[in-house]
Design brief:
Largest sheet: 9 strands, mixed
Number of helices: 15
Strand order of the largest sheet: 14-13-12-11-7-10-9-8-15
Shape: globular
CATH superfamily of the largest domain: Dihydrodipicolinate Reductase, domain 2
CATH topology of the largest domain: Dihydrodipicolinate Reductase, domain 2
Radius of gyration: 22 Å
Oligomer: single chain
Distance between the termini: 28 Å
Order of helices and strands: EHEHEHEHEHEHEHHHEHHEEEEEEHHEHH
Number of strands: 15
């Protein structure tokens, strides 16, 4: 019988409590055992443990947990800027690590993680679940099969609606020191997808970003939604009490750590952009046009790959005020020397589980030993580093107005030897 991996969960926000807590135990209990829950807020940890349905020990101190329980695996779901300290200590204790994206937020923090991974011989996985969605996997297969020849350029545009997008500006993500900006926190998903689709590294980035809706652009502001005098007129008012899950995790626990889940989206000290565009050049010659918008009436993305022999296009909706099929349609247009074109519409049904089945498939890949990886979907520290570097470069360019070369930020990641050793992870 397979020995279950003993894991510790560090961070009990929404993602940690559900994806890596309750849902992981519900579907993968034959493969894992939760032995500890760590959070600086003990009440939030207790609430999370009840939601997860576990009897795991609760800790507020990481070192004490590592010493007492000696887990095989540590799953990190804390604010982005804290990942490196936790990942490094977990690796040094002899555990492997799964970290939520982004892997971290700065070049120095990337170095700390990659150096610790090499030094300890342990493994870091980064939770890039979008790679595992069935539609993404089908697109990757088409590209790898050369269905449109050599890819020359990509149009990639991501839209967050006024529920999801605004939520980043209510929370700690709204400050660069914690999230690296949405160029890092959110776009790391998108940059990783591009890196994986294209099988190449981003080389240079030029970008723009600005606050167009939130922060100082707001018409009014309050201390937090619950206490705001503008509730009736604010389009972004969040009634935390109407969501029992969020209320349990955050409202009473806020008395301990002062963290309010319903912060005002118009706080004047918000210092990240809500509207972002970037142009990326890849080492294999592909050019990418990218954008991220955070206050749209719809949610989803549009991506199109332009190739020497055709084009692949996808428009995927995640939330919209009309009905859509329970499937995605990939449009594949092949071109021929004689000027003819062949059109194929490829339907990919949605799968159960979060992110159209991507969450479940990722957990299968990590925890079920017989699962193969023909598309290279499992993402390690190099993938995490490359996506973060792309976001750091984009934010730097948007603030400085110049083209930023990624090799100037972290030369060792682009060395020939580094690529040979780390490309697989």
């Amino acid at each position: 019988m397979e020995q279950r991996r003993r894991f510790a969960l560090v961070g009990t926000g929404n993602r940690g409590t559900t994806m890596w807590g309750r849902d992981l135990l519900a579907g993968w209990s034959d493969h894992v055992e939760l032995v500890a829950i760590v959070d600086r807020n003990p009440l939030r940890a207790e609430r999370a443990r009840a939601i997860i349905g576990s009897a795991a020990s609760i800790y507020t101190d990481l070192e004490a947990m590592l010493r007492d329980t000696m887990p095989d695996l540590v799953i990190v779901c804390t604010p982005d800027d804290t990942h490196d300290d936790i990942v490094v200590r977990a690796l040094e204790s002899g555990a492997d690590v799964i970290t939520e994206k982004p892997m971290t937020t700065t070049v120095d923090k990337i170095r700390r993680i990659t150096d610790a991974e090499k030094r300890t011989g342990r493994r870091v996985d980064v939770s890039f679940n979008y790679r595992f969605a069935p539609t993404a996997a089908r697109i990757k297969s088409l590209l790898d099969a050369g269905e449109i020849g050599r890819v020359t350029s990509v149009d990639f545009h991501w839209y967050l609606d006024t529920s999801h997008g605004a939520d980043y500006f209510r929370r700690w993500h709204a400050y660069k020191k914690h999230s690296g900006s949405l160029f890092v926190h959110k776009a790391t998903h998108h940059f990783d997808l591009l890196n994986w689709y294209l099988g190449s590294d981003p080389e240079a980035v030029s970008a723009f970003g600005d606050l167009q809706m939130y922060g100082r652009k707001g018409p009014f502001r309050g201390p937090r939604c619950k206490l705001c005098p503008h509730k009736a007129e604010c389009d972004f008012y969040l009634d935390l009490g109407a969501n029992p899950f969020l209320d349990a995790l955050y409202e009473e626990p806020s008395a301990i750590d002062g963290y309010f889940r319903d912060g005002c989206v118009f706080r004047e000290d918000i210092d990240i952009p809500d509207t972002m565009v970037a142009t990326i050049r890849y080492r294999n010659g592909v050019h990418v046009s990218y954008s991220l918008n955070t206050f749209q009436p719809i949610e989803g993305h549009h991506i199109a790959f332009n190739g020497s022999k055709g084009r692949i296009e996808l428009r995927q909706f995640e939330a919209q005020p009309w009905e859509t099929p329970a499937s995605d349609e990939i449009l594949l247009v092949r071109s021929f020397e004689e000027g003819g074109r062949a059109v194929e519409r490829i339907t990919v049904p949605h799968s159960s589980g979060g992110h159209y089945g991507g969450d479940d498939r990722m957990r299968n890949m990590i925890f079920k030993p017989a699962t193969t990886d023909p598309l290279g979907q499992r993402a390690g520290s190099r993938a995490g580093a490359m996506s973060v570097l792309c976001g750091i470069a984009a934010f730097s360019s948007a603030n400085g107005g110049s083209v930023v070369r990624l090799a100037d930020l972290m030369p060792e990641l682009f060395s020939e030897q580094s690529e040979r050793v780390l490309k697989a992870v």
